[in-house]
Amino acid sequence: MSKPSKRRGREGRMKQAAAPDPSPPVWPGVMGGRLKPLSSEEVALVEEAMFTLLETLGLSQAIPSMQKKVVAAGGSMTADGRLLFPRALVKKAIAEAKRDFTLCGQVSERDLCLEKARVHMSTGGAAPGVFDMDSGEYRPATLADLYDAARLVDCMENIHHFSRPVVARDVEDNALMDINTAYACLAGTSKHVSISITEPQNVPAIAELCYAIAGGEEAFRARPFLTVMVCHVVPPMRFAEEACEVLEAAINAGFPVQLISAGQAGATSPATIAGSLVQAVAETLAGLVFARLIDPEAKAIFAPKPLVADLRTGSMSGGGGEQAILMAAAAQMGRHFDLPTSSIAGITDAKTLDAQYGAEKSLAVAMAAHAGSNIVTQAAGIHASLLGVSLQGYVSDNDLLGNILRTVRGVEATPENIAADVIAQVCLGPGHYLGEKHTFNRMKSDYFYPHIGDRRTPTEWHEDGSKDVGEVAKEKAKELLSEYFPTHLSDEVDQVLRDRFDIQLSRAQIGRSV
């Protein structure tokens, strides 16, 4: 770890590099939604099947508070203990759900507007392992790895949101892990953070930590900078009781929530893409009904995230075309309901930054983004079918995501952009566009330039060591990790947190004087 004095010099350079471009080629919230893999007739079939499942089959294992709220709102319990959701109740939840809200950063410049089909890229994963940059082997993830991932993402302009990517396996107690996970993420980046919480009794401590950072409970409720991700179901069509209790506690504490259904096709959801989609949508909307009955003002994100298995082995197959089209369809259903939506995409099965990694990640992320998912999780860093995270992957994926966002931005065919007058001037004049003011003015606004992607000649590349993108990304990641330590949490606030909670990361580990 570098000393604070060394950090300050680099910090100044980072701030200068991070200064917003007045005419960027891509930005957080580029408008997607043009890709529609489902026809209007197929959307209607999915919707009808979903409504029918919820009102006739329902879900089992609803917690008592959910049963009470849903029944009071018009639902019913079957003799075998399944909670039924009438169509009118589900439609009411969809129609009255909170829309067009902001996921706040700890600083306002990092705010994300979840409006219509605006697209934002995110990490994610809950991986147990990390691809070690020095050994080239996988090892158990640590709390320090989580903090390192957060501060790397803090520097990546095309990764807009930080969803907890690894589980800190060096912290065994669940309560201690939850509070330290929140701390590591929030200390590592000022971007909006999403985490999961293992047990409902751990929610108050996470809330207290967030209130302390925000300057009070009222301040946090006005600008919540942390979302609680909740897998409220155990597919097929069964509630996860403890997770539902976490959901209720999180909403009551003022957290935005992400409502996740993650069945696995052929195992815990139907083997067909359409069947898996219908089940995931139904399970997610059941969670939305409950969330709104807890608090009609709840900021809830629709997050059907069904996964795909290789049916020859039963193992996850996150990099295939099936996963890509399933996520695009799930995003399309979110746009159909006009709900803030999150999709899981980029779960490559590759084990390192190779051709498989780039191909699989690009395919799935691009499709979810073009379909209009507001938050595309697992878009950066994750690989090995959710079993590992690559820190240098964040650096290389920052380029990949910038290019994808440029395609989402689209052609923008307007009279000004078509520039027929410029075409005429060039054809009647110099015969090329290189010296035109129009060309100069559009160099930055219309073109995305990669940070580590290599566009040199083969000779230049060879003379510079013939490094592949993984090597270049590793060098950049190591440089950033040695010199960049965020300071959006003041020393005073950090000390308050350490006085109240058992923070496992030392001040030296976060680049502060002891």
CATH architecture of the domain at 96-408: Alpha-Beta Barrel
- Number of separate helices: 19
Q: Biggest sheet: strands, sense, closure?
A: 5 strands, parallel
Q: Which bin fits the share of residues in helices?
A: 40-55%
Architecture overview:
- The protein starts with a helix and ends in a 14-residue tail after the last helix.
- It is an alpha/beta fold.
- The protein has helices at about 5-15, 40-55, 65-70, 85-95, 145-155, 175-190, 205-215, 215-220, 240-250, 275-295, 320-335, 355-370, 390-410, 415-420, 420-430, 435-440, 460-465, 470-485, 490-500; strands at about 30, 60, 75, 80-85, 100-105, 110-115, 120, 130, 140, 160-165, 195, 225-230, 255-260, 265, 300-305, 305-310, 340-345, 375, 380-385, 390.
- Strands 10-11-12-13-15 form a 5-stranded parallel sheet. A 4-stranded mixed sheet has the order 1-7-18-17.
- The model is unreliable at about 1-15 (pLDDT under 50).
- Helix 2 (about 40-55) crosses helix 10 (about 275-295), helix 11 (about 320-335) packs parallel to helix 12 and helix 13 packs across helix 18.
- It has a domain at about 95-410: TIM Barrel (Alpha-Beta Barrel).
- The longest helix is centred in the middle third of the chain and has 22 residues, at about 275-295.
- It is globular.
